[in-house]
Amino acid sequence: MADTELTYKIALSMLKGINADFIRRLDDYGITPEDIFHKSTSEISEALGMHGKIVFEKMMLDEALFRARREETLINQHHIKTHFLLDDSYPARLSEVADAPVVIYQLGDADLNAEHVINVVGTRHCTPYGVDFCNKLITDLSLYFPQLCVVSGLAYGIDAAAHATSLANEVNTVAVVAHGLNMIYPSAHRDLAKRILSAGGAIITEYPFGEKPFRQRFLERNRIVAGLADVTIVVESDIKGGAMSTANTAFSYSRDVMALPGRVSDQYSSGCNHLIRKEKAHLIGCANDLIELTGWKPLGMNIDVRQRNLFPELEGDVKLVYDTVRFSQDPMQLDRIHQLTMIPVGKLLSVLGEMEFDGIIVRHPGNRFSIA
After folding, report:
1. How far is Cα 54 from Cα 351, in angstroms, rounded to an integer?
2. Are 86 and 72 in contact (CB under 8 A)?
3. Helix intervals (H) in the chain
């Protein structure tokens, strides 16, 4: 079988040292993946203005093509979609990040460019507190956003809860795995993976068939989880762990991060509390918090009137302060709120205290305030 355009794209992704930055540079200079395998190294270096800095040995190129041909056969047999970084089908949000994978393999039909995409991550040692919040959050969001997509990592604990709740609410869900699509890890989640695919979701990875999971790959996987979504939500996490890695990565991408607070004595809330304290994450306690942060417009359909109102009525000085603070990108100083609202400082402090008690605003060090 003759090599196809896809063969060269896959082969290019398998070359050591190839990353998103290099792929974008090739595109800028009009060099195709096929050129890498049929033009001399000196020609490629000269075209890129990188004389002598690029070396592709023939043995390395031949090995990559051999593996790519085998991979192409397997993905055709198993109806796997392949998204190359420069393809129109590549997830748009993920394409924006500097260290995006060169190739994404997708099993299943989920739209990776859905209108509203969140990822929900957390510890494998989850508690009823975390699972209940996860269930309520996704259930509430599903009422307002029919095109919602929930991304997670198919791990034990919060990941599994996020996928399972999405399925229960007929919400598309995407599992990002740290291995080839010839297996499922952990094996106990094979049934969950099948249910995800049957419901129109997807399992995706950057790794070819036969690639096994190990610690570093789970960390690499987390950047895909972060990059696919508009918002990263950490439900429960120790101060160290995969969920914290995902949150920090999302923060570095300038994506919104939210965390569920917990008691200071709870080990698996320590990571969430830390993110909030360091102002890397916004506090989340309900679906309304996410809607307020993102500015998403809920659809007025399929809403059970018994559901609590996500947008409580505010009046008087409380409404004036709320409307003043909500449009500030950074926490607002007390003096600035006073200047904009003209509410006397003594009364303003009382109003702010009331709003903080009601969970409407958050007080930051230095008498600065933001919407909760």
Report:
1. 63
2. no
3. 5-13, 20-28, 33-38, 41-48, 58-77, 92-95, 128-144, 158-168, 190-198, 215-228, 242-252, 270-277, 287-294, 316-325, 334-341, 345-357
Q: pLDDT, tens digit, for every residue of 238-264?
A: 999 899 999 999 999 999 999 999 988
Handedness of CA 202, 157, 187, 181 (dihedral sign): positive
The radius of gyration computed from the CA coordinates of the chain, to the nearest angstrom, equals 24
Distance of CA 314 to the CA centre of its chain: 33
Contact 106, 80 (CB under 8 A): yes
DSSP string, 215-266: HHHHHHHHHHHHHH-SEEEE-S--SSSHHHHHHHHHHHTT-EEEE----TT-
What's the pTM? 0.79
pLDDT at 304 over 50: no
Determine whether 141 is exposed, middle or buried from the number of CB atoms within 10 Å of its CB (0-12, 13-18, 19+): buried
Cβ count near 73 (within 10 Å): 12
Percent of the chain surpassing pLDDT 90: 67
Q: Can you tell me whether residue 86 is helix, strand or coil? A: coil
Element (H, E) at 175: strand 172-176
Look at the block and give the residue holding tokens 């969430």: 272
Cβ contact 173:151 at 8 Å: yes
Structure tokens at 358: 């009601």
Q: Is the sign of the CA dihedral 12, 14, 16, 20 positive or negative?
A: positive
CA 236-241-247 angle, to 5 degrees, is: 70
Q: What angle separates helix 58-77 from helix 5-13, to the nearest 10 degrees?
A: 120
pLDDT value at residue 256: 96
Which single residue is written with the structure tokens 């200047």?
339
pLDDT above 80 (res 311): no
Q: 115 pLDDT exceeds 90? A: yes
Neighbours of 200 (CB within 10 A): 13
